[in-house]
Amino acid sequence: MTVGDFVERLPLTVVAAKNGLDNQVTGGYVSDLLSNVMGFAAAGNVWVTMQGHQNIIAVASLAGLAAVIVAGGIEPEKETAQKAESEGVTLLTTKLPCFELVGQLYQLGIKDA
Amino acid sequence: MQRFVADLHVHSLLSPCAEVEMTPRNIVWHAAEHGIDIVAITDHNSCDNVQAAMEAAKGLNVTVLPGMEVETKEEIHFVVLFDKLRQLLAWNQIVMAHMSGRLNDAKRFGAQFVVDAEDNLVRVKEEMLLTSLSLSAKEVAEQVDALGGISIASHVDRHVYSILSQLGFIPSDIKLAAVEISPRTNRQDIVQRIPTLGRWPIVTSSDAHTIEDFVSGPKTVFLLEQPTVSEIRQAFDGQNSREVVV
Fold this sequence. Notes:
heterodimer, A: alpha/beta, about 40% helix, B: alpha/beta, nine-stranded mixed sheet, two-stranded antiparallel ribbon, 9 helices
């Protein structure tokens, strides 16, 4: 499935880098500790977090992630959206809490880390 | 230039996680007894015991620096330090305006005591201190700087509440005077493990929550003319022969 497939099926808002909607999603990762994401998220993962700091974009770019979803109704900072656009990292938001979102992603078939 | 032994990160009994023995008077008396020349009182998101510590230090050869350990919205801890109590109180106004509004549960987190310079209980602080403010790391550093203070990233080697654990790396737009490492590591090891940390001055502090930790924990030695934050800032920047020695 692609990032765009999830956007069609789940209450996700595309904040930046629409061109990444064609990215294939290989698996998922959840963490609010960016040091941990750098060490353990795999390329092609969709990453669910509640951190809205612009460093999430650098980390996602470094790890080659398919998309970042900022969950729980957290508004990413202005710089984060700008950086996502300039770095081409697809940034999504949702009002769903992380647990609910991950459950739904899992049901749609994202089962690998 | 004089040699000053400094502990820039010490919790009083206002911090819910600190022991009640950490009264301002007990801290400064132990500082005097153990040759600790500079002590920063840095309670979580609060500073109600700083004035008592400054009063208790009168007549002793100990300088109390007004400080606070701030928790940003990313759950990063910064030690912030000022030269004057009024600067810290101005900063505290900003802190209070960005608190969660939750109240402390003393049974679960520990009690938060405000005391005077003679160890008398003044009141119990009700706001929950051990939680994040709604200010970002960048905002905290900027506003502290605007008030004339400095920000030091707390225990960057730890896996919780550290700028590195929370943000992965130190963003270039955050105005940090230095980074602090916890007693669990040392300068050589941390710079070997995370070479980019070599860009910042590194301080070692006790982060004491007990008198034993305070007395035996790591300190930082500075070469300064006067024991002030502005001179410590110069030492970090390597200016005017001020230095961080160890």
